[in-house]
Amino acid sequence: MRVEALTDRGHDGSAGASSDRREQAQHRFRKIFDALNSDHGRQFPTWRPTAGALHPPQGQWTNGSCPVNLGRARLPLRLLIVPGLGASLAGALGQPLPDAAAHVRRLGYAVDLLEVGGLTSSRRNARLLNHLIAGIEHDPAERIVVLGYSKGAVDALVALASHPALAERVTAMVSLAGSIGGSILVDDLPDAIFERGARLRRWLPLGGLKSLESRRRQRWLESAALPAQVRLYNLVSHARRPRISGVLRASYERLRWIDARNDGQVLARHQVVPGSTLLAELNADHWAVALPLAQRHPWLRRVGLGANDYPREILLEAVLKHIEEDLLDPRTTGAP
User: Fold this and answer.
1) Which long-range contacts (CB under 8 A, 24 or more apart) does 166-171 make?
2) pTM of the entire structure?
3) Count of CB atoms within 10 A of residue 50's CB?
4) β 143-149/231-237 pair status
5) Are strands 277-282 and 231-237 parallel, antiparallel or unpaired?
6) pLDDT tens digits for 99-156?
7) HEC profile for 31-81?
8) What is the pLDDT of residue 332?
9) Quick one: three-class SS letters along the chain?
10) In DSSP terms, which residues pair with 278 in a beta bridge?
């Protein structure tokens, strides 16, 4: 599956929606990101110019006249963030987008972090997500947007596909550097790790790791019925070696033998949700797009996290404002 090869599913999830609008989504997202970045991006310590933050979109854009909302939220969106593999063991360091979440809250968006099992399978986390989201008290006018980072995107997608009542409550899902098609790095692990007894299973994330086996994920994608009513969006990450932090370079080089378009953990083409709208290809490694590790602990830049800075505040604001535009667009089914 190529990153550019999106299916005939549109913003509203229905087959046959306008392919022109889907193809222009990257251009519109870049315009939103750039307008926000120019207006207030420099106030954040990890600012980066748009040309350095996003890879150039493909194709031509024919409509650049729509203004960008630079202010507060126009719709009551509630963002639910699902963390990745092992996040629950890392405490605050494992929480994705805490800096960005604080920024968009100030703009009027509600944001919650959903605590799932960091070492458990996607099937088990899907059941937990269904329970957690069902228990959230919120204004009926709010639109729920689920953002899954890394394995969290897999957990969220499995939850939406497995629980129809949950899919009815969720307006949109965003995959950020999602391990949608699995991880070749997990495939490389020796089978003995998964075959040995209970002693290893106490210390290793066997359920979580097995959920990321490429064959397992590809079989699931071939058989799963993704919910048509949920708008699906993709943020894919990949970078060249200078944008990969030192601690991820060994895995980056391993993946580069297969495809240079990777983020040090997952191939770009394995990050695509079938039928989704590709918003952007992020010029950063797998950790930089979501985890402000070096921002919280600057000394980490000297010991292997030299490429960890990324404009995550602007990224998340641009995502929510792009989704707002889609929901407010009268051409989309179900728009207000």
Assistant:
1) 166/129, 166/130, 166/133, 166/134, 167/227, 167/229, 167/230, 168/229, 169/133, 169/134, 169/144, 170/133, 170/144, 170/145, 170/146, 170/227, 170/230, 171/143, 171/144, 171/145, 171/230, 171/231, 171/323, 171/327
2) 0.90
3) 19
4) unpaired
5) parallel
6) 999 999 999 999 999 999 888 899 999 999 999 999 998 788 999 999 999 999 999 9
7) HHHHHHHHHHHHHCCCCCCHHHHECCCCCCCCCCCCCCCCCCCCCCEEEEE
8) 60
9) CCCCCCCCECCCCCECCCHHHHHCHHHHHHHHHHHHHHHHHHHCCCCCCHHHHECCCCCCCCCCCCCCCCCCCCCCEEEEEECCCCHHHCHHHHCCCHHHHHHHHHCCCEEEECCCCCCCCHHHHHHHHHHHHHCCCCCCCCEEEEEEECHHHHHHHHHHHHCHHHHHHEEEEEEECCCCCCCHHHHCCCHHHHHCCHHHHHHCCHHHHHCCCHHHHHHHHHHCCCCCCCEEEEEEECCCHHHCCHHHHHHHHHHHCCCCCECCCCEHHHHCCCCCEEEEEECCCCCCCCCCHHHHCHHHHHHCCCCCCCCHHHHHHHHHHHHHHHHHCCCCCCCC
10) 234
Task: Locate 259 and state its tokens.
Answer: 């495809």
CA distance 232 to 248: 28
Residue linked to tokens 């009027």: 108
Alpha-carbon torsion (267, 129, 287, 55), positive or negative: positive
Any idea which residue has 């040995």 for tokens?
A: 196
pLDDT digits (tens, 9 = 90+) for 15-58: 334 456 667 899 999 999 999 999 999 999 999 999 999 999 98
309 and 46 Cβ atoms separated by less than 8 Å: yes
The dihedrals phi and psi of 151, each to the nearest 5 degrees, come to -65, -25
- CA dist., res. 4 & res. 82, Å (int): 25
Nearest to 171 by CA among 151, 141, 150: 141
